[in-house]
């Protein structure tokens, strides 16, 4: 079977539309909200309304940061048909939007990572009930980072309610969102199998935003610390099944990452592409010729480095597309999602910093956005699982070892 490396024709309209939004709506206000940290970008309300309209009409085909349930009938790939669906549409759209600004993309109403959790783990009824909710996701704790299995936030069933207690840190859009998807354990003694995710609406007594973080990059996006003290939510706000399946572990909750890690890879691809596009123009103005018909070793050092960066970018982009395509076709993609996230996160950091270096004083100053993209890119190698954790997950899959066998 021939493999086409071009974007699917049915998604080119979405991709081009996202690029226009990035160029005309996000890029012009990028520096403004980088400087005005914690100010909500009011301009995004209009964009969110546009996306809602496209979603209602069915024209968006999954442009937002929402995951897709693998067992949905539309994603049934058992009939032999190849599907380029909502996961692929999402990564293409997000990459273009992050060509405009990563922090602003993360600030879009109703496009939070918590929405991916609802789409990935929630029942059909929950997806409908929380369909219009802007949901952030709270996983990390002061003593628990990449090892999600060590979560200490508790959820205790009391009648027809769960009572949540704990503290969450580094919650993206934690102050602005309508609800927070909180990861908590039903029983600490049962380990990772007892970890579930819960939708906690904003304004619920017992949930408070303690503070907002000051950050190196993605400063347009708020990052919150949230405390839960005897916070009561309806039992039906537990996403998916409340049953503890020791055999499955917490695979249900972790399935969220199979959808969100390709999205983070897309953010990295978009941010790096922005840096490469601008650097290409700046080098051309400086008289540096990049010849794609000659070996890199026969060209200037700047041209050779640029060609190497473009190759690195293309490799990350193809891994991103592979992970999303597998999800669309109901194929296991846990390893590929981690590969895409690991490669793209490291690539974006390397490429954006190298672009700053190649452009010298122009790259380092605030006259251009190169220095900002270098700052923004670093988080893409950290959140949704660090570089080191992704490599550990990949190693386990390749070697066929469990988390207990390979730490």
Write up what this structure looks like.
It is a single chain. The chain has helices at about 10-25, 30-35, 45-55, 85-100, 100-105, 115-120, 125-130, 250-285, 300-330, 335-365, 370-380, 385-400, and strands at about 135-140, 155-160, 160-170, 180-185, 195-200, 205-210, 225-235. By secondary structure, it is of the alpha+beta class. It has three domains: about 10-130, Orthogonal Bundle (Butyryl-Coa Dehydrogenase, subunit A, domain 1); about 135-235, Butyryl-CoA Dehydrogenase, subunit A, domain 2, CATH 2.40.110; about 250-400, Butyryl-CoA Dehydrogenase, subunit A, domain 3 (Up-down Bundle), CATH 1.20.140.10. Helix 10 packs antiparallel against helix 12 (about 385-400).
Order of helices and strands: HHHHHHHEEEEEEEHHHHH
| Biggest β-sheet: strands ordered side by side in the sheet | 2-3-7-6
CATH architecture of the largest domain: Up-down Bundle
Q: Give average pLDDT, whole number.
A: 90
Distance between the termini: 39 Å
Strand content: 5-15%
User: What characteristic shape results from the CA principal axes?
Assistant: globular
Tell me the helix content.
40-55%
Q: In total, how many domains does the architecture comprise? A: 3
Uncertain regions spanning at least 5 consecutive residues = 61-68, 72-77
What's the CATH C level of the largest domain? Answer: Mainly Alpha
Total E-strand runs: 7
Q: What summary fits the major beta sheet?
A: 4 strands, antiparallel
Number of helices, where a helix is a run of at least 4 consecutive DSSP H or I residues: 12
| Radius of gyration computed on alpha carbons | 21 Å
């Amino acid at each position: 079977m021939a493999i086409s490396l071009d974007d699917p024709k049915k998604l080119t309209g979405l991709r081009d539309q996202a690029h226009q939004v990035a160029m005309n709506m996000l890029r012009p206000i990028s520096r403004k909200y980088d400087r005005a940290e914690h100010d909500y970008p009011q301009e995004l309300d209009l964009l969110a309304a546009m996306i809602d309209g496209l979603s209602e009409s069915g024209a968006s085909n999954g442009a937002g940061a929402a995951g897709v349930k693998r067992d949905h009938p539309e994603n049934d790939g058992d009939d032999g048909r190849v599907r380029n669906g909502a996961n692929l549409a999402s990564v293409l759209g997000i990459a273009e939007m992050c060509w405009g600004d990563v922090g602003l993309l993360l600030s879009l109403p109703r496009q939070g990572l918590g929405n991916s959790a609802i789409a990935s783990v929630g029942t059909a009824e929950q997806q409908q009930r929380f369909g219009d909710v802007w949901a952030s996701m709270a996983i990390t704790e002061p003593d628990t980072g990449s090892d999600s299995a060590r979560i200490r936030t508790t959820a205790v069933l009391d009648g027809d309610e769960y009572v949540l207690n704990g503290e969450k840190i580094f919650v993206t859009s934690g102050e602005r969102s309508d609800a927070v998807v909180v990861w908590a354990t039903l029983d600490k003694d049962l380990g990772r199998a007892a970890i579930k995710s819960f939708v906690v609406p904003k304004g619920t007594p017992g949930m408070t935003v303690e503070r907002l973080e000051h950050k190196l990059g993605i400063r347009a996006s708020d990052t919150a610390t949230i405390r839960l003290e005897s916070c009561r939510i309806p039992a039906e706000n537990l996403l998916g099944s409340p049953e503890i399946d020791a055999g499955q572990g917490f695979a249900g909750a972790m399935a969220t990452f199979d959808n969100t890690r390709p999205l983070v890879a897309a953010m990295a691809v978009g941010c790096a592409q922005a840096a490469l596009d601008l650097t290409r123009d700046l080098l051309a103005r400086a008289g540096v010729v990049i010849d794609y018909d000659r070996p890199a070793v026969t060209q200037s050092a700047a041209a050779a480095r640029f060609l190497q960066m473009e190759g690195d970018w293309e490799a990350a982009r193809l891994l991103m597309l592979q992970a999303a395509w597998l999800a669309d076709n109901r194929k296991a993609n846990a390893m590929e999602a981690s590969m895409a996230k690991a490669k793209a996160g490291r690539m974006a950091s390397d490429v954006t910093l190298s672009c700053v270096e190649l452009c010298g004083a122009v790259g380092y100053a605030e006259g251009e956005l190169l220095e900002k993209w270098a700052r923004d890119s670093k988080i893409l190698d950290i959140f949704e699982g660090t570089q080191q954790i992704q490599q550990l997950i990949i190693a386990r899959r390749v070697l066929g070892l469990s988390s207990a066998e390979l730490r």
